[in-house]
């Protein structure tokens, strides 16, 4: 929109607030839908192919909880006793995070206008929380040994970080950049 000048036309027709809101909505919906449909299709196929997701056609017995040597946490207990519900919840969580990250990328694209910079910043802001000891990957990983005391603070920290980037980029675009 920016390179072709179409952004200015849209802002003049719609107004800057409506333009930004439309871009944020579409970025969230597209990112959320792509991840949700992909992971949902994966879940459906694994339920069909692997007989409910707990065993393979080549295995006579389903997985046994006793065979795990793991720290037992409440989150793991819930995950193990309700695997389908757990997978659906984690698909929703992952899709929501994908939507927020899509919004972050769109907000950066609206305010920065330089593709290489937007890609690099979006990747860096997404990747930095992965590098910590309590990685953001724990948020998306069902059936793990970590409990809510690890997952919830990481999820809150990541969402706050992403939303702060979105708000900062939108404020930058609204207040500083002139059409």
Secondary structure class reads mainly alpha
Helix content: 55-70%
Give the number of helices. Answer: 6
The average pLDDT score comes to 81
Q: How many beta-strand segments? A: 0
Distance between the termini: 13 Å
Sheet bearing the most strands, described?
Answer: none
User: Could you tell me the strand content as a percent range?
Assistant: under 5%
Q: State the oligomer.
A: single chain
Order of helices and strands: HHHHHH
How many structural domains does the protein architecture include?
A: 1
The 3D shape can be described as elongated
Contiguous uncertain segments of 5+ residues: none
Q: Round the Cα radius of gyration to an integer and report it.
A: 20 Å
Structure report:
The chain has 179 residues and is mostly helical. The protein has one domain. The protein has 6 helices and no strands. The chain has helices at 6-14, 16-49, 74-81, 83-112, 115-127, 148-176. The longest helix has 34 residues, at 16-49. The model has no long low-confidence stretch (mean pLDDT 81). Keywords: Membrane, Transmembrane, Transmembrane helix. The chain crosses the membrane at residues 26-50, 88-110, 117-134, 146-172.
What are the salient characteristics of this protein?
179 residues, mainly alpha, 6 helices, transmembrane, membrane
Task: Give a concise summary.
With 179 residues, the chain is an all-alpha fold.
How are the SSEs ordered, and which strands pair?
Blueprint: H1 6-14, H2 16-49, H3 74-81, H4 83-112, H5 115-127, H6 148-176
Helix pairs in contact: 1-2, 2-4, 3-4, 4-5, 4-6
